[in-house]
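Example record used in the benchmark description.
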Amino acid sequence: IQVLALVEKTCGYMFAREVKEKSFTGVYDEKITMAENFLRDVGKREITLQCDGESTLKALVDAVTDRFTTEEGPNVYSVRGRYTSAYTSNANGSVERGIRLIRDQLRVMFGAVCHKFYEVFNPNCKFIPWLIRHATWLLNRLVAQRSLGDRTRYEVLFGRKYHPNKVYEFL
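Model output (structure tokens):
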């Protein structure tokens, strides 16, 4: 499974979606739109996209930066790219930590689904993309962090509490 993961660094707000392939296929690649939507949802105007020096990620960052740059009129967003050395996970600690959190939550949720139906599902089954999105959604809105003053990532980013009164067990 190939997953595109993005993390807002000040509060750790995360985004994760399954992608078809890791390679960058050009300006019409779905990953550009995914990153653009995440950045617009976060709502910050000064944005620095950081990735390791891997060529596919650099091309993606450049394409997202171009998407936010207009030739006429003022730019509403200031987006720039920063590249660390290739394959140095220490420089990208917040994303690595986010990936670990999402992976651990996925493992628990996938195990719960398998246990509930008494069946071991294939890891390529149809509900995995939804499970990736939902795990990230839950981590952002419902899991408080001590480092954020016992607030959730959602609370820190948007300045208001998420009201989970409409969250139900789905099985």
